[in-house]
Amino acid sequence: MSDPMNLVGVLDLMDGVVVRAVGGHRDEYRPVQSRICDSCEPMEVAAAFRREYGIEQLYVADLDAIRGGPVNTSPIVNLAAEGFRITLDAGFRSLADLEPMEELGITTFVAALETLPNVATLGAFIDRLGAERLRFSIDLVAGIPLADPTGWGQAQWDETSPLVLAELAAEEGVEQLIVLDLKAVGTAIGPTTAEICRQIKTRLPKASLWSGGGIRTAADALELRSAGADGVLIASALHDRTL
Fold first, then answer.
1. Domains contained in the chain, number
2. How far apart are CA 211 and CA 137, in angstroms?
3. Domain span holding position 43
4. Across-strand partners of 57?
5. What is the CATH number of the domain that holds 168?
6. Quick one: angle between helices 218-226 and 194-203, nearest 10?
7. pTM attached to this predicted model
8. What are the average pLDDT values for consecutive 10-residue runs of the chain, which has 243 residues?
């Protein structure tokens, strides 16, 4: 069933191993315990995603780098060498962060709202990489953007802000988006971003849109797809075999 769902397997890396992400509380993340793999090594987990679900597209989040540390390039290079298509979030804050990563076989780089200082930096990333190699992540906590609004030309955030951010990104030349509510990640509460996806896809029908968080079952994944998501970010349901 992976084709209609268009699953994107998520690897959250911390200290070089895959961890179980729950609710955005990163200090509490622990090495993953999985029903499809007896290892938390990135290559073993990715191989299990491929074997069990036919997943070839990975979203890799280097949580150490997102929190300001160096990027752990070794697992990323190894995954790319095995033919996985890698979309990498390593907390890129400036062009200087991107430059050493450009020749590592990464398919797409994530410019994440959580770590970008402002909309001008997003524009600089697009100029450097081109729209085909950049995906802007609209990071939310309970529906509210995870960023200082002033860097994005806003006085404050509200429930309309995710759509506003998508439109700002499109004005900068962004063609690929992610909508992710960190509060829902790993919680198995069901998708919380369907309405936001629907609004964005209605306004920006040509944009490539990924979303996830809280996915429990195939029905949840298909709900996001029907709301306009072109890809579904997923981890816990894969490990727990609830899909």
1. 1
2. 9
3. 2-240
4. 85
5. 3.20.20.70
6. 30
7. 0.95
8. 79 95 79 96 98 98 95 96 98 96 96 97 98 98 96 96 98 98 90 97 98 95 98 96 94
